[in-house]
UniProtKB/TrEMBL annotation:
Top-level taxon of the source organism: Bacteria
Key word Cytoplasm present: yes
Subcellular location: Cytoplasm
This protein's UniProt keywords: Cytoplasm
Protein name listed in UniProt: Universal stress protein
Length: 307
């Protein structure tokens, strides 16, 4: 198999052309990468039928997968006519995230693309949606598409967090901005860089450790220090002042408002693994997936070396 990195499109079980198809086609042309389309199918009705007649259920599964693969081939044809290399596959799986991991282990992937799928709050209590698994645990960049108003992005919004000052955090910010700059350049899109200074979170964290009161001016000083770190990062990546934004407020609300006002097509941000209570409550990226007016492009930190 070719060692050229591919875009992996996770097609929906329903045989309908979605926004992710359009975005994948445009990204494949902009990034000049081949595409592998895969449908991860599992129909509960056929599974139940197997309890009574396993042979007939297996035949129905094979027929369904063949039909779905033929449908994918039809969706791939216009892309091939534009000179893109596209392969298709349909699999019967009960654990889609594990199947995606297997793809990541078996072929070089540059990006995983999938339509964002909204789950009700009640369902999220009892199981972790696939989108959240990809954001939390997948080590590859993930693009969750909510709509394709502009199949090729016209405005890219990069989100960084300069609250923490550890070396690995600063390096991760550089990685996020690098990814956003590269995407904007390849798609001939405009780039905005944004940091939201959440002084409420800083205050809550520090008062728990017996810090000085807000009136002392400590938090204004911290905000000024963060602004300087942010300004240096923007300059380092060549982001002009008119495209560089440092604002105060609640991150989730401010990011969504900014993306709406500036008609962003993609939010590029970093995600890290969460354990324990943080995994249960979710991250900013996961909440943005529910509320943001545009698609999410999740950049992952470098893998930690094996001990």
């Amino acid at each position: 198999m070719s060692q050229t990195p591919r875009l992996l499109l996770i097609a929906p079980q329903q045989m309908q052309r979605t926004a992710a198809f359009e975005r994948t086609a445009q990204l494949a042309k902009a990034l000049q990468l081949p595409v592998h389309m895969v449908a991860l199918d599992h129909l509960q009705a056929l599974t139940l039928a197997g309890l009574f007649d396993s042979g007939q259920a297996e035949q129905l599964q094979v027929a369904y997968l063949q039909q779905h693969r033929q449908w994918l081939e039809q969706q791939a044809q216009p892309m091939r006519e534009q000179g893109l290399q596209v392969t298709c596959e349909a699999l019967w799986v009960t654990q889609p995230y594990q199947a995606i991991q297997q793809f990541a282990n078996e072929m070089p992937l540059a990006l995983i693309i999938k339509d964002a799928h909204a789950e009700s709050a009640m369902r999220r209590i009892f199981y972790t949606p696939l989108d959240w698994q990809l954001l939390r645990d997948c080590t590859l960049p993930v693009h969750l598409v909510t709509e394709a108003r502009h199949p090729r992005p016209r405005r890219v919004l990069a989100i960084i967090d300069v609250l923490r000052s550890e070396v690995q955090d600063l390096q991760f910010n550089d990685q996020i901005v690098d990814a956003a700059v590269k995407l904007a350049e390849q798609c001939d899109a405009e780039l905005d860089l944004l940091h939201v200074y959440d002084w409420v979170a800083v205050y809550a964290k520090d008062t728990g450790a017996g810090a000085l009161s807000l009136a002392s001016g400590l938090y204004e000083a911290l905000g000024a220090a963060q602004h300087e770190v942010y300004r240096a990062l923007a300059e380092r990546h060549g982001v002009p002042p008119e495209r560089s934004h440092f604002i105060e407020g609640m991150p989730l609300q401010q990011i969504c408002r900014f993306a709406e006002e500036h008609q962003s097509d993609v939010i590029v941000m970093g995600t890290t693994q969460h354990r324990g209570v943080h995994k249960r409550l979710g991250s900013t990226a996961e909440h943005l997936l529910l509320q943001a007016p545009c698609s999410i492009w999740a950049v992952k930190p470098p893998r930690e070396p094996q001990q």
